[in-house]
Records
---
Amino acid sequence: MNQPAQQQEVPGTEGELTPAADHGERTYQGSGRLDGKAAVITGADSGIGKAVAIAYAREGADVLISYLNEHEDAEDTKKWVEAAGRTAILVPGDLADAAHCRHIIATAVEQFGRVDILVSNAAFQMSHDSIEEISDEEWDKTLAINLSAYFHLTKAAVPHMPPGSSIIGSSSVNSDTPSPALMPYAATKAAIANMSASLAQLLARKGIRANSVAPGPIWTPLIPATMPEEKVESFGENVPLGRPGQPAELAPVYVMLASDEASYVSGARVAVTGGRPIL
């Protein structure tokens, strides 16, 4: 895959992404692995979250689609979920607001009666060549969206999660091999992996599993919205497979971790990195 140099306004949209990302719209085939489950997925309007929403629906789950304000992208995700015969609930809003995180879970409980799967996936990043370029506001925003939201969502969801439920945090290869240009983002991704491992131990007695996924370079609107054009053009070339991954290539891992087949998988961090090892 070769992507041209390009830029978008934050948070980025699928419609402006060249080439278009693959979310498994035409390829993912479900087999009932999540029949009857209710899932909450943040950042499900595009990228990894969208691919996971489509896969979950085709596996039999109803899905709450949390997103910021990319209404057109979110409506497209909703269309694919409903085409799979499942219910899709759209909840726009800013995850940096703890009250909104609680609202997301309350809406899921109102609509579905419970939360079987929580995928904390939405993220913010910006690329900087020096620490002086990182404003206090940007630091606080990155931690609030990427990390604190995971805490607030989980805290609100746990009372409504039956035994056998699954929590999945989207970490990153940056969690232990951080890019210096993505320092705040990388710090949050390390914390997500750590928090997921803590949750696995805290929630085991409730029968709730917690894991994280560590993607490598994945082609999503976040990339041209938060990186310089020259880095977008070469994005993904530095991994052994020599290309960025597609969101569709992440979805099977999220399905596995959410399914009852992973009943003894908790406290894990699964690498989907194009060949770059994680520690």
---
Amino acid sequence: MKNLRFILLLLKLRLSHMMVFRLSFFGAFFADGTLFLMQLLSFSVIYGQVDAIGGWSRGQMLVFVGTFSMINAINMTVYFFGLINIPELIRGGGLDLYITKPVNPLFRLTFENADPGSVPLLCLSGAIIAYGLSVEGAPLTAPLIAGYVAFVLIMTLLYYDMELILRTIPFFVISAAAIDRLEGDLLTLNFKIPGIIYKGGFKILFYFIMPYGIMATVPTQFVTKTLTPAGLVHAVCAAALFTVFALWFWRFGLKHYKSAM
């Protein structure tokens, strides 16, 4: 409850700050909505002329696109704008201000820059998921919906882990520009291609080493009843292991932090 009150306070302060510049606040709604429409256009161009991709129907692909957009929208709404500042804070010494406060620095970095401007993308993503399920004709039950929501949250946690790991690397290097480019390219690729397409070395890379390939694939497989027990266990274990590693790596990075101030 103490952490929840702190999160609510951070959100209140964030909203107050954003509403000072109302054009920027509502501009975020417009920008995210435009990005979503561009994603749908990209999907239409790439997949509109075929009935199946790697054995997946058009309905499954719509659910996949909506799921990846939903995970990204949660990311943008809750923690992205906090984590993205970590490399600059490390390089400029600003992390000192977080370490010396009586609050877990990672906890504060995670939630202090929540962005309500991305909330409409959550609604639009939900709409495309619902449309994809209707096209697929998949019968929905309460346990199936609950399981899908749980997998989306688990994969969002995995997404958070990957962002934290990549932004902890600057504790040990000078520049993080290449890391940002790598992450952007990986997300762009895995937004367009479901994980079931990957074979051989690519599957090892995107399922085990940098598991972007399972983030939207597994929830889609679950809600369309194509997820195998092995796939379910792998997804849960991957999220758990990467969470443990990300938190350890962050603490390890803090031990090697040298203030620039």
---
Amino acid sequence: MKHIAQYRQTLIREFGRAADLIEKSPKPLLLAIGYLSAIVIEILNFMAGHEIRLAVFYFPSLFLLTWFVSTRSAAVLAILSSVFWFMIGFDLLEITSMEHIWNALMRFVLFVTFVYVVRAYKRERNFARQDFLTKVANGQRFTELSNIEIERCRRYGRPFSVAYMDIDDFKKINDSFGHIAGDDLLFKVARTIRGNIRSTDTVARLGGDEFAILLPETGFEPACRLVQKIRVLLLDAVQDRFWQCTFSFGVVTFLSAPPSVDDMIRQADALMYKAKAAGKNQAMCIKYEI
């Protein structure tokens, strides 16, 4: 049972890694792959004639476009696939028969329903992995991505860095301006960080006024420079609203894989509290290596 559980975790991790890789691919490329694969299926369907139908092979293309490109592009593909399928084996008597028209309509309904079911599932999945207030990743998503980086570091020796951040004197903002202002501050912090990191990086709100930044394949010096830059940008961002707060960071670069995500966060969190104890409004950086 233990081996089965490990195999399942490995499989889920590899699927997640593949999905992340596809998600980072250019959308025009994915759009071209989706439509070209559907065209190939149409040609094979035409060559197979009436005896064989390849309907099931349309669904991977529809899924690819719905999940990674847009619902609109997938809906267009659903319409085109239904029309082309309707025209296969062109025979005026068959084309105009009610049975053939009804079958084509049902295929169209099936394709479109599939597209919108996938969209609904993706939306619910994203909500489950997104912080409702700041719209950045939540703890669950951060854990998933961190596990991938830990495994990559363990297997290939690729370093990565994690920054843990706390808003200094956040309680005073809530007490002085109200919780609406506090929520506005959290949203502004999340947006500022997200706007100044790479697409491969991840910012997550882990609770309250604490945020974490995952920096894949990022060494010690680049991570420290980036976090110092973000700290300055955050200070500039809050000056517009006259919020009297600063930001403390703990940055850990992992040259060796930590035992777990919890241990990884614990180290960055402890370093962040050292920064607060040393006077706040600063970033402390260390390296971790076994």
